[in-house]
UniProtKB/TrEMBL annotation:
<dbReference type="InterPro" id="IPR003787">
    <property type="entry name" value="Sulphur_relay_DsrE/F-like"/>
</dbReference>
<dbReference type="GO" id="GO:0005829">
    <property type="term" value="C:cytosol"/>
</dbReference>
<dbReference type="Pfam" id="PF02635">
    <property type="entry name" value="DsrE"/>
</dbReference>
<dbReference type="InterPro" id="IPR027396">
    <property type="entry name" value="DsrEFH-like"/>
</dbReference>
<protein>
    <submittedName>
        <fullName>DsrE family protein</fullName>
    </submittedName>
</protein>
């Protein structure tokens, strides 16, 4: 499994992003757990500066800056692609 974050989803790869109070799911923590299990997480580099409410904040360890060209390679090389 590989995960590519783009647009406002890039905030999920930043420590500045916190789960809303009384929210029963912490998506940032879930993403960190996936990284700890060896899942590759890449983040759109252009979106880092343009999207999200935490623009230009650093990514946490394990989330790697990437490009749309690399995403295109992933799609071509994949058996299945899920887009959310």
């Amino acid at each position: 499994m590989r995960i590519f974050l783009m647009n406002d989803a890039v905030d999920m790869a930043r420590d500045a992003c916190k789960a809303p109070e009384a929210y029963d799911q912490d998506l940032v923590m879930m993403l960190k757990q996936l990284i700890a299990r060896g899942v590759i997480v890449k983040v759109c580099g252009t979106c880092m500066a343009r999207c999200g409410i935490h623009k230009n904040q650093p990514y946490y360890e394990g989330a790697q800056r990437s490009t749309m060209a690399e995403l295109a390679e992933w799609v071509v090389d994949s058996d299945r692609v899920i887009t959310l």
